[in-house]
Every structure is written in structure tokens, then in C-alpha cells.
Amino acid sequence: MALLAAGVTLGLSAGFSPGPLLALVVSQTIRHGFREGAKVAFAPVITDFPIIFLSTLLLANLSKYRAV
After folding, report:
1. Tens place of pLDDT for every residue, the chain, 68 residues?
2. Rounded alpha-carbon distances, angstroms, from residue 9 to 3, 14, 51
């Protein structure tokens, strides 16, 4: 349970840190409204999902091989 709490804390602190994506989301929201800001904020979820899926698939298949 302590590891889960640490993971959530670190994930949230990394996710809320200001950066270029946050600036883009705020900018789009101010210029075009909440809906456009939400689209920009949701874009990384769509683009990162295939990478996460393929990485998980690769790591799951690596367990079938013996270490040298």
C-alpha cells in the first residue's frame, strides 16, 4: 500500500508540473474554449497508448527467454 501511495504521489507531482504541454492546453483553452483545451489535453493519452501497449507486449514476451 505504501508503494501505491508513493507511485500516485510521484505520478501526480510529475503530471502537474508546468511545462510546454500545460502552456499549450491553457493557451488553447483561453483562445478557443474548454472543449478545444480538453482535446489538446487528451491528445497524449491517444498517442501514448499504442507505445504503452507495445512496450507491455514486448516485456511480457521477454519473460519467455532465458538470460544468457
Report:
1. 889 999 899 988 887 778 888 899 999 999 999 999 999 999 988 999 999 999 999 998 888 888 77
2. 10, 9, 23
Cα distances (angstroms) measured from residue 37 to each of 3, 12, 52, 55: 33, 20, 24, 29
Q: What is the Cα–Cα distance from 37 to 23, expressed in whole angstroms?
A: 10
Sign of the torsion formed by the C-alpha atoms of 56, 58, 59 and 63: positive
pTM of the model: 0.58
Amino acid occupying residue 45? V
Taking phi over 0 as left and psi of -120 to 50 as alpha, with beta for the rest, 33 belongs to left
